[in-house]
Design goal:
Blueprint (H helix, E strand, L loop, with lengths): L31 E7 L10 E10 L8 E7 L3 E8 L6 E2 L6 E2 L2 E7 L7 E10 L8 E3 L1
Antiparallel strand pairs: 1-2, 2-8, 3-7, 3-9, 4-6, 4-8, 5-7
Length: 138
């Protein structure tokens, strides 16, 4: 058991005793890696499609449980397709596409073995002029 004794003097001369219990650190046996690449042109014309290639890898030593991939679609953007290792059936809200922004698209990732990689693509259309920031989170 790890313990610490702390003595503090206050205006009234009171003594405070603090005892800390054991501290446990647990290593996660899996390690998610997320890579996102855009296959569009800079700048992309209004109503032009940018295809985002997304890969999720379990770099850990153990099978990783099912997880979520969350895609944030900004105002002025539209999700128009999901393909590859994910399909619209894996995602919510229930699609049909296109899904206009601002919106959050959540896709379920299956359990993954060590070193397993899931590849998917997300097609996005910029429906207005300006800078649009899309983000993906596992």
């Amino acid at each position: 058991m790890t313990s610490a004794r702390v003595v503090l003097g206050g205006l009234s001369g009171a003594v405070l005793l603090a005892v800390a219990g054991p501290v446990f650190a647990q290593e996660t046996p899996y390690d998610w890696t997320l890579n996102v690449n855009d296959n569009g042109h800079d700048p992309t014309p209004v109503n032009g499609t940018v295809v985002y290639s997304v890969s999720v890898e379990n770099n850990g030593d153990s099978r990783a449980p099912a997880n979520k991939l969350t895609f944030h679609i900004p105002q002025g953007g539209r999700a128009t397709a999901v393909a590859g290792g994910l399909s619209p059936a894996d995602c919510s809200p229930a699609l049909p596409l296109p899904l206009p922004g601002p919106a959050v698209l959540t896709c379920m990732l299956p359990p993954m073995n060590p070193s397993e990689v899931l590849h998917a693509t997300f097609d996005m259309v910029a429906s207005e002029k300006g800078v649009l920031n899309y983000s993906f989170v596992v």
